Structures are given as structure tokens and as C-alpha cells.
Queue: 3 jobs
Job 1
Amino acid sequence: MYRLLLALTLSLAAISIPASATSAPNATLTGTVGPSFEISLNNPDGSSVSHLDPGTYDITVTDNAPIVHNFHLHGPGVDMATPLEGGGTVTWTVTFTDGTYTFLCDAHPVQMKGSFTVGAVTLPPPPVTPGKLSGKVTARAISVHTSSGGKARRIVAKKYKVTVSDTSNKQNFHLTGPGVNKKTGVRAKTKTTWTLSLKPGTYKFRSDKNRKLHGSFKVTTLI
């Protein structure tokens, strides 16, 4: 009787376990390489993987390349790769821990690569693309324009590439402001590019040979 009651109790306990107590399925990621020089790793919603929580994931990798490509994933505790030839689809089950992971094509590691972080590790912010300004001085005029073509009057503080066209052998282009004092020669026609970090404040440009040729623009933290 005791054994019968014990068996019945265990059976009822097993039946009463809620579904939530069973193991949840692994999150699924999708890796793709080809058909040309493309490689990617995406979340279930189609967005690119940039950061993941630590844990176990199923990764379905599809090689669509008719030429020599592969998908190589490596990082802390993981080093998985598809063949360089053959194509097809494969599924890996991997466990990610805190760190940075890279995926690339072994045949083209420079053109075809990506990375993401897991857990407490984060990628540094992408580098800021320098803005563009163009300065010009002629025998009768001097100006500074933004990349959109309008005259520079108020721009945001950051790094800029300033391309100066000095078309006069009697004038020059002289730019001054916070942390900047750059100029072209008076007796030479030239085209040059300066890479400058423009800080908040007023910047003035002029010809050192003609007081009538001058102008200015302001640099602020926000437009």
C-alpha cells in the first residue's frame, strides 16, 4: 500500500508541473553569407545583431555564395566555421559569455566582417565623420560655404575638413578662431585641405592684403 501511495504521489506531482517550469527554447539567430561580398548576423526580427545577453543560442547559417566564401564565428568559448566551398545551410548551438565576438569570411576578412558584444561588454561608439567646409578667395571676394552649398554662418562644433581654393596671387585665405590659425600664401595660387577641430566660438576669415575681404561664422554646441 505504501509503495502504491508513493507512486501515485509522484505521478500527480509530475502532472502538476506547470509548462513555465520546463526549459525554454534557445533564441534563434540567422547568419548569411553571399551571394556576393555580403555577410550578416541577424536577430529573429531581422535587425542586425549588435549586443546579446549571455546564454545559449541556435544559429542557422546559410551560405548563398557561388564563389569561395564562408561564415566564421569566433570569440570567448566559440570558434565555428562553415567550409570555404560548398554552400548550404547549417545550424549551430553555441553559448555566449561576456565578451566581443567576430564573424567574417576567412577568404575575405577585410571586406566581409562584423562584430557584436555580449553581456557587460559594449562596443565603442563609431567614429564621427568630419564635416566639410569650402573656403575660397579671389582677387575681389572671399567666402566659406558648407557642404550643402550655402554660406557658413552657424555650424556645430566638431572636426571638419576645410578645402581652401586660393585663386589669386595677390590675396590669401587666413582663418582664425579658437585653436585655429591657418593661412595660405599671398603670392601663390593653391588648393589645400585642412583638417580642423572647430570649437564653440567665432571664426574669422580674411585676406591679409585687403581689409575689405573678410567674413566670419559662429560655431556652437548645437545648431
Note: Helices lie at 2-15.
Job 2
Amino acid sequence: MTRLFQGIGCILLVSAEETGATLMLFFHALRDAGSSFRNPKRTLAQMKRVGVDSLPIAMAIAVFTGMVLALHTGSTLREFDFEGATATIVAFSMLKEMGPVLTAMLLAGRVGASIAAEIGTMQVDEEIDALHTLGISPIRYLVVPRLTAAIIMLPVLVVFASASGILGGAAVCQSFFDIGYKEFFETAFEGMDFSDQLEGVIKAFFFGAIVATIACRKGMTTRGGAEGVGRAITSCVVTSFVCIFICNYFVTWIMV
């Protein structure tokens, strides 16, 4: 029993230490955020990587998510002769939850893993130590452009993904439930105010910061060669997923 509590205590201490170190990395990057605008080339390259390169797959995932959501919702509500509410449910779900969460998970799996692998390889090859030797701040050179790009571009991705999901839901409603596009969009946004439309974008700012900071932290603490890089990638993706869901709950709780 003593060993069990010792093990639990060690896990809690390591988790608390890692959380503190990640937050310190985030605040140090915020402190140096102005450098990304003085030398925007690296930041623009990361913005393309995060936003433009991820846009097609984000929209494809969102379209089919909206279609599946409309199918399930409409089929269930049809039993109660209430399928007209499908539009509202699809729009609210895509704007407030499915759009930002799914897009953030895509960012974690696609871009976050890539960042962790890239910086982790640099750490293993001692390139980050070389930056220190040259008097270049790794946070300013590596972390700030990636963090800035994620914070700026994830909300943009969420807007396009949410719109794509709603369009996918509208297409299903038109095909299966005889709800025209005009009726769909009039019903979808009838009871929605500006805060409902803004909630997903606000979540995206937090999710972008979470994914980029965790990816950079895992990359910069990589040890053990190629095997260590693999562990860093896995840890980055899993930790990002957990933090996204935790953050999603608290932001939702604040905005309800």
C-alpha cells in the first residue's frame, strides 16, 4: 500500500512539474512574441503549414461530420415529427463544439506531432545547443513562430471547418428530410446570437496555444535518439488531446 501511494505521489509530482515547465515556456514565448512580427518570414511559413496545408483535410472532416450529425439527428427527431429542429442542432453543434474540437485534434495529430518530431530531432542532434552557443534564443527562434501561427490560424481553420460542417448538414437535410437550404439556414441561425457564433473561435485560440506549446515542450525535452523522438510524438499527441478536452469543458462552463 505504501508503494502504491508513493507511485501516485511521484506521478502527481512529475505531472505538476511538467505542467509548470510548459506554462513557463508559454509565458516566455509570449514575452518574446514581438520578434515574430519583426522577422515575419518564419512565422508566415508556419502559418502556411498550420493553416493553408491543413485546410483541405479540416474541411473534409467537418463536411462528413456535419452530414453524419444531420443524419442521426434528423432520423431521431423524425420519430417525434420534429425534424425541423435538425438545422438548429447541427449549426449549434458545429459552431460551439464539433468544429473547434475536431479541428484542434487534427492540428494536434498533424501539426503538433510534426513540430515535436522536428524540434525533437534538433534536440537529439544538439542543434538547439548550437543555437545557445551562437547566442540565439531557441524560444524566440523555434517556439514563438509556431505558437503565433497556431494561435492565429486555428481560429481561421475553425471558421472554415464549422461552415463546411453546416453546409454538409444542410445537404443531408435537403436530400433526406425535405428541408430546403433557405429553410435550413433561417432555422439554424434564428435562435443563435453573436456569442454562440464566437464561442468556437474563442476556444480555438486556447486550443492553438495548447497544441503548439505542448508540441514545442515535448520536442525540446526529447532524449534518447530516434526512439526518444517517437516517444515525444506520442506524448505530444496524447497530452494535447487530454488538454483540449479539459480546456473545452472549462471554456464552455465559463461561457454558458
Note: The chain has ten helices and no strands.
Job 3
Amino acid sequence: MSSLELVLGDLAAEGAELDARVAECSARDWDCPTPAPGWTVRHQIAHLAWTDQMALLSLTEPQRLAELSRPGGADPAGFVDRAAEQGAQRPPGELLSAWRAGRLELAQRLAAADGRKLTWFGPPMSATSMATARLMETWAHGLDVAAGLGQPVAPTDRLWHVARLAGRTRDFAFRLHGLPVPAEEFWIDLSAPDGRRWTFGPADAAQRVTGSAWDFCRLAVQRCNRDEVGLRAEGAEADRWLDIIQAFAGPPGPGRGTGR
């Protein structure tokens, strides 16, 4: 199985888990507030559906994607919020059907695009990277939906993709905050949901991050506050990274307050 096939399989599973969570929602449930200020369950699914459509354009009409993203350059956060608000006006059944159709088509087109570089809001990316980013975002917004509905979330080994992405976006997080990029790689040592260890980077690195994959991934998508997790950093640069870590594209996120 190729890397792309593996990611696409896990992306499908992540989408199916969230789909099952919202499929039985009442109309009232769809309007439950989530931890993202101003966003209901409806906004969360609308955002995922919209982003899938943008990813489809990167595969089918890259010039169209560039045209649509141009107005968001000056206000990327507002651009995303407006798209979510517009999508959230659709009836829940229609919105759910659109998300299902979009993510299915995206998976099919990504499977046929292996080896291509795809246009995106940031630098071009491979089909595997695009699928990984979609998995990360689906999982992150799934956490918000579950929190809004008051439901638990069980960590799975699909978090490996999120953890690896968080490690690979380390330099991006430093640049985003106008900070010098560390010259040396970090050692990341995480306990996986099944009890195994996931490690990234050189084992003899001076800068080190250790803890659970669950905590690391939630922090990387800014779904928790650093004070709420048991991650440990050795070295000043690793410590600083845990304050600014961000696995998703866009401007620096505000993070999450304690208890949100």
C-alpha cells in the first residue's frame, strides 16, 4: 500500500466517524454552539464541505482557486468565517449530503493525482500532503463537533498522520510568529493510543518533546491549552515551540483558553 493509499483510507475512516456523529443529530443539535467562537455544529460541517470544494478546485480548476482565494489574502480568517457562515445557512440534510459528495469526489481525484503538485493557499503540495491536511482538519473539527454535542472522542492510530504533520510544520510555526527557525531537528517521542511509541527526528537531539500523541495532536490543532496537557519539553526552543505549535495553514491561531 502506498503512502497516499494509507492516508486516503484513514481520511475516509475519519470522515465516516464524524459523519456518524452528525447523521443522527436533530435540528436543534445542528445549532449547538461549539468551542470555536460563533460556530455551531452546522458551521463546522459547512467549513469542512467548503474546504473540500476548494481542494477539489486545486485538482480541477487551479486558476479558479487562485481567483477565489485572492480576496482572502488581506483577511484570511474573515474569509474562512464568511464561507462557513454562508454554508451554515443550508438545511442540515442538504449540507450533510454536500459534504458527503464532496469528500468522496475529493478522495477519488486525489487517488488519481499521485505525483502531481497541487495549488493551495500556501505553497503547492503533493496529493499525499493534501490528504493528510484534510485528515487533520476533519479530526480537529470533529473534536469541536463532539464537544458541542457533549460526546466523548476516542483517540485512534489515525493520529499518527496528525502527529507527523505537526512535526513537519515546526518551521512554519516559527516563521508565522516571526521567530528564527531552529537550526537543528527536534526529537519527538509520543505514546500512541495503542501503547506503542511514535518517534520523529534524531534520537540524540538536544531539543526534545515527549508525552502522549493525544495531547500533542490536540495542542497542534489548538483544541486545548498547553496548561491542560502533560507534554514535556527539554530545551528552550522545544519549549517555545509548544507555545506556538500550529499544524494548520493560515495566520497564527488564538489558541484555546483553559477548559474550552
Note: The chain has a mean pLDDT of 93.
